Predict the 3D structure of the following.
Amino acid sequence: MLRLFYQGLDGLCRTSLWVAGTSMVVLTVIFGWLVFGRYVLNATPTWVEQVALLLVVLIGFVGASTGVHERSHLGVSFFRDMAPRPVQRAMDFLVYLIMAVFGSVMMVQTYVLVLFKWDTEIPLINLPEGLRAVPLTFCGAACLIYSIGHLIRFFLDRDPPSSIQR
């Protein structure tokens, strides 16, 4: 059962990376269209800026959540690596616990933001303003579930793999 849970986390991480990567390609294409429209057609597509803002949030937060799963998120491990093994374990536990709490707070509070802003429209593209916060809610949920996975491994005293299989 636990193996299925970790396979699910790996699948979620892979899917998140694909979504972030695809969004990066779409962002590049629409900016190409912006430049072409502005300098060749002399008609600037006004919707590009708003779509680009949505995509940047999607890329940033969905992509960042995978760093928690792969243990590649920003961190300073110099002092941890110098510490004795029991202190390293305590630091690892504390980091996983803090990330789980942070993820849960982020998930709940940004979900409240999604609901609050849903009735307002984004100018030029007529989509709900709350859509901007959906990637943040996903990121919080992903950070929470990835941290739970790390905590389970911690208590089972198993080292996580260095990175997911792609």
